[in-house]
Every structure is written in structure tokens, then in C-alpha cells.
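Researcher: Before we compare anything, I want clean individual predictions. No alignment, no superposition, just each chain on its own. First chain goes here; please echo the sequence and then give the C-alpha cells.
Model: Echoing the first chain and its structure:
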Amino acid sequence: MSNVSHRSDLSGHPDVDEMRERHDRVMSGGGRSTALADAPVFLLGLYCAVSPWVLHFTASQPALVTHNLVIGIAIAVLALCFTAMPERMTGMSIAICALGAWLIVSPWIVGSSPDMGVILNNVIVGGLAVVLGAVCAGLAVMNKKT
């Protein structure tokens, strides 16, 4: 086993220039400008998904339970995709704004006579989603300009 040689020199690799450029781009923040917003967006999506059980409106608003679960999972998945593939997903940042706007109006469209707690929950979560989505979209636009 001691005769096994580990070659760490990549100078002979055919894609060494491209690999170095990508490494420099990733290390300097290229494509990762929304990284600071990824975690809050993910947590916001998780909260949105579990909010019917946290606020106990599962019995009074069954349609909103499913709605918030699906929208929350969608927001969390988008955040995970932003983290995993930032170069490809930066254009999708505006989708979080759209989901947030939908969350704001959904208690009156999806729900049936929602109470103030349900309305405040969706308006606050939706507003935060719009703000965080706008931050991600703005950072993505600034990143493309540089």
C-alpha cells in the first residue's frame, strides 16, 4: 500500500484552465451573491408549511392547510435549489416574490371566513417572502452586471 502514489498535480489535465477559472469564480463569490438570503428563505418556507399546525387552524381552514403546506414546501425547495445550483437559479428569485404575493391574498381566495390570526400569518409570511425574493433578485441582477 505504501507504493501507491497520489497525484495532486493537475497541470496535465485537459480542463485545467476552465477548472481554475471556475474555482476563482466560486471563491470570489460569483454566482453566490444570494447565499446570505438562502437560509432565511428556506426557514420561511418551512414555517409556512407548518404554520397551520403551529397556529391551530387545521380544523377551521382545511383548504388553507393544504395550500400553506404546498406553498411552504415550494419556497423551501426553491431555497435549496438556490443553494445547490446558484448559477442556474438566480433568475428564479422572482418566483419567491410571486409566491409571497399569492400568500398575502390567499386567505381571502382559498380560505373561508379566515380569522385575524390566519390573515396576519399569511400576510406576514407573504410579505417576508416578497422582501427576501426581491433581495435575492436584486443581488442576482447586481451579480450579472459585474
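Researcher: Okay. Second chain, same rules.
Model: Second chain and its structure:
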Amino acid sequence: MATEIKTKSLEQVEHKGSKSKGVNTLLWVLAIALLVVAAVGNTYFASHFSLIVRVLLLVVLLIGAVAFAAITNQGQKAIHFIKDSRTELRKIIWPTRPEATQTTLIVLAMCVIVALVLWGIDSIIVALITFLTNLRF
């Protein structure tokens, strides 16, 4: 009983700020329409307006499309995910400069060692194949 109440309350919290399917669809249609207008308008008005005017209008239309997409249900989830990701990034203990340099040098040294070993094995195989193919029976 208690677990059912907890799961219901969690579902209510998740659906608290969500929009209906119709509103969500309308917002997506508006966002896509702004993107289409930006792309087609930029091409169509290339000879009528200067580049700076077209770029400014393109930026305004793209910001509008992103704003409409951001207030959809999926956009809200994406924003929430980005905020959570930033929070997790702050928790990471990043290596210091000497640690990063030392690790990089170790990786480079191992790459050189593996390259030399593979070159040696390849040379041995080539020499063996050359020896076997030059034999006259």
C-alpha cells in the first residue's frame, strides 16, 4: 500500500508540468515551421537582402524554434537532463596538470612500445614468408 502511494506520487510529480499531446504537437509544428521558414527564406531572399540582415533574421528564427522546442515535454526533459549533467560534472575530481602530463606520456610510451613490437612481429613474418617462397624444391 505504501509503495503504491509512493509510485503514484512520483508519477504525479513527473506529469505535473507536462503538456497535453495536442499542445505538445502544436509546439513541435511551430518549431519545425520556424526552421523551414528560416531555411527557405534565407535561400529565397538571398538576392533581396544583404547578408547581415539575413543572418540576423536567421538567428532570430532559430532562437524562436529552439524556444518552442524547449517548452515541449521532450524539451523540458532535455533541459532537466542537461542540468543534472552539469551537477554531475561538478562532482568530478579532475586530474591536476602534472597527473595529466604523466598519464599522457605513459600512453605515448606504450603506443611506441606496441608499435615496435608489432613492427618486429611483422618483420619476422615477412622474412619467414620470403624464405619459404624462395625455396626451390
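Researcher: What stands out in the second chain?
Model: The mean pLDDT is 87. Additionally, The longest helix spans residues 97-134.
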